[in-house]
Backbone:
């Protein structure tokens, strides 16, 4: 075993009804005036009422920034940063899915650092700490509430890239499964597949270590157990709790061990074709697992077990292949898109996509099996 380090973000509060404590948690973290970053239309929802009630109970003034967009462009983060600075907020609260949380994280560092979000895409390019920030996920997917990454589309370059900096770690996160009860089945399905991708990829990453593996493996177990149920019966609080906890654990796994080729290969789908992050990852996860499984059979056999498959009496190799089947079956059952052609992506785009995916080098370096340009094309073809 080599040297490893482990980090988890700020204070994490979890549980049904915990949104009541949000105002107090922000106060405790040091926030006095809050910029609330949400999707347009979120202000009309039940969860928003609960959130503002909790802030008001604590006497915390807040300003609403509701210009978040799906697969956000860097300019949206710039506007968030300007609003935080202009309104003299000292705390940025991201409420929603990955887009809202990523926008909040970037706005917090832009407010203190100036410049534009695109200046900071890459690794460790943010010079100074940002404003305090807290995250309230309303999907069980990205794990952005515990990671140091915020992903944006750079419009000029039509490229999707992350701002990766320790200054992006939130000071606090609050996860209330009741806020996820009204998520529609399709969103539950593809955000859940993103969370499963984080768990499987971080578990099988070359950078995985004993501490990160605990989180990743338990994430796989919880998601494997409850994703079908959460899609079929959205009002099932136990399934929703498993999913939110599972995506949190997967997020901690990912923050410490990284992701692998699934995320690299799905970046161009978002950057070029605006395919939602979870849809792209859900589609590519089984194919990349198939590509990797026999390069790391012991680990993939453990993935099969964590997915709830019976592996007694099976060889390690067959257990590893069972993990691939298990995830494929799950994806089919919850009806995530399984083909690039169904998303309107033509085969002629593959060489450009592969070239771009190979530039997303960090996850590729973590992949248990080297991925060549030809391999990337083959994987796209397999899911065409
Ligand atoms: Fe992801």
Residues:
């Amino acid at each position: 075993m080599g040297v490893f380090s482990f980090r988890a973000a700020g204070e994490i509060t979890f549980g049904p009804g915990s949104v009541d404590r949000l105002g107090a948690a922000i106060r405790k973290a040091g926030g006095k005036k809050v910029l609330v970053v949400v999707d347009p239309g979120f202000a009309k929802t039940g969860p928003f009422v609960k959130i503002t009630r909790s802030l008001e109970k604590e006497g915390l003034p807040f300003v609403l920034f509701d210009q978040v967009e799906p697969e956000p462009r860097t300019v949206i983060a710039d506007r968030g940063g300007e609003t935080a600075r202009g309104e003299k907020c000292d705390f940025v609260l991201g409420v929603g899915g990955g887009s809202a949380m990523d926008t909040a994280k970037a706005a917090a560092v832009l407010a203190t650092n100036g410049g534009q979000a695109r200046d900071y895409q890459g690794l460790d390019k943010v010079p100074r700490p940002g404003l305090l920030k807290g995250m309230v996920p309303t999907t069980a997917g990205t794990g952005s509430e515990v990671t140091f990454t915020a992903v944006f589309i750079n419009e000029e370059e039509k490229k999707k890239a992350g701002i990766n900096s320790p200054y992006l770690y939130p000071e606090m996160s609050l996860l209330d499964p009741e806020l996820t009860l009204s998520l529609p089945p399709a969103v539950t399905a593809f955000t859940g597949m993103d969370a499963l991708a984080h768990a499987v990829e971080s578990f099988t990453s070359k950078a995985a270590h004993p501490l990160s593996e605990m989180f990743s493996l338990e994430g796989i177990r919880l998601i494997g157990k409850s994703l079908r149920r959460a899609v079929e019966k959205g009002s099932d609080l136990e399934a929703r709790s498993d999913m939110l906890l599972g995506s949190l654990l997967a997020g901690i796994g990912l923050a410490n061990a990284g992701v692998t080729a699934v995320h690299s290969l799905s970046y161009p789908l978002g950057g070029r074709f605006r395919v939602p992050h979870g849809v792209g990852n859900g589609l590519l996860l089984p194919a990349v697992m198939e590509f990797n499984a026999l390069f790391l059979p012991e680990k993939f056999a453990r993935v099969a077990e964590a997915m709830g498959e019976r592996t007694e009496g099976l060889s390690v190799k067959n257990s590893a292949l069972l993990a691939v089947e298990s995830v494929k079956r799950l994806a089919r059952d919850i009806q995530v898109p399984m083909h690039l052609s169904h998303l309107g992506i033509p085969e002629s785009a593959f060489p450009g996509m592969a070239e771009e995916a190979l530039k997303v080098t960090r996850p590729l370096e973590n992949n248990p099996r080297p991925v060549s340009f030809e391999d990337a094309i083959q994987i796209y073809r397999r899911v065409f």
In short: Residues 210-232 form the longest helix (23 residues). The longest strand covers residues 91-96. The chain has a mean pLDDT of 96.
